[in-house]
Amino acid sequence: MHEVSKVYPNGTEALKALDLTIYPGEHVVILGHNGSGKSTLFRCLTGFENITSGFLEIDGKNPSQLKKRKERSAFRRNIGLVFQHYHLTQNLSVLQNVLFGALGRQSFRKVCAPIASLALRNEAMEALERVGMESVAGNGADELSGGQKQRVAIARMIMQRPRMIMADEPIASLDPKAGKEIMDLLVSICKENQLTFISILHQTDIALQYGERIIGLNQGEVQLDKPVPFIQRSELHELYMSSQEQKEERLEGVVGYGI
Predict the structure, then answer these.
(1) Where is the ABC transporter domain (predicted)?
(2) pTM score
(3) Of 26, 82, 56, whose CA–CA distance to 197 is shortest?
(4) Helix, strand, coil percent values for the chain (each to nearest 5)
(5) What's the rounded Cα separation, in Å, for the pair 8 and 35?
(6) What was the pLDDT predicted at 249?
(7) 129 in the same domain as 173
């Protein structure tokens, strides 16, 4: 992306002339406090928001130029999306929820469990096996824990056969153990299939553990962009400070030198 900006109708400038390149196969974590622009950036990358100005290209396409619903659906078909909330159909079986992941390449009728082809049902079971949930394929989605629901959502995403994965706070609703398991799972799937992985997180320790590169946003601008091995904890601390806190800390430093 080059000089990408996003201004909302009320005048809020959420993104300010961002210049970023994310390479195929990279594992990138986007960090920032509330209002930093990270969620807006995620929505622009996935085509749920149009940029106001600049140039943005994902997998050879500019999502902001895809005006027709069919074009946007085809674009998102190649992006495996994982959200904080699982968006499962609670009154349907786990297997049926996973079969819905094939909707981008099959008609609704063909993904309905009772009449879905054997090949499609086998593929769904393989996806469930990959996330360790094959034993509950016949259970209702409403019977699962939060961590289990996220695993099923990931199995559904696998059914898309995506070219890249984007995750928006995928472990925010989970306890630390379940969150670690989900991150382990997502990273391993991306490595196995050589997929680009972009995730929005707020836990700095998780970002350092699972990211290869961290992009830190502050007030719509890139404040930090480094490979994880070169990042200092102090840089992450400063990323989450407000502008006023940063000014006060710098002033304290000046006073401390007796100037």
Answers:
(1) 1-244
(2) 0.87
(3) 26
(4) 45, 20, 35
(5) 13
(6) 53
(7) no
For residue 29, the surrounding DSSP H or E stretch is strand 27-31
Polymer length in residues for the chain: 259
pLDDT band, residue 248 (cuts 50/70/90)? low
Task: Tell me the one-letter amino acid at 241.
Answer: M
Could you give the CA distance from residue 123 to residue 110 in angstroms, rounded to a whole number? 13
Angle between helices 146-158 and 176-193 (to 10 degrees): 10
58 lies in which domain range? 1-78+162-232
Contact 218, 240 (CB under 8 A): no
Q: Are residues 94 and 65 in the same domain?
A: no
Tell me, yes or no, whether 156 and 169 share the same domain. no
Domain membership flag for residue 255: no
H-helix or E-strand spanning residue 198: strand 196-200
Number of domains forming the structure of the chain: 2
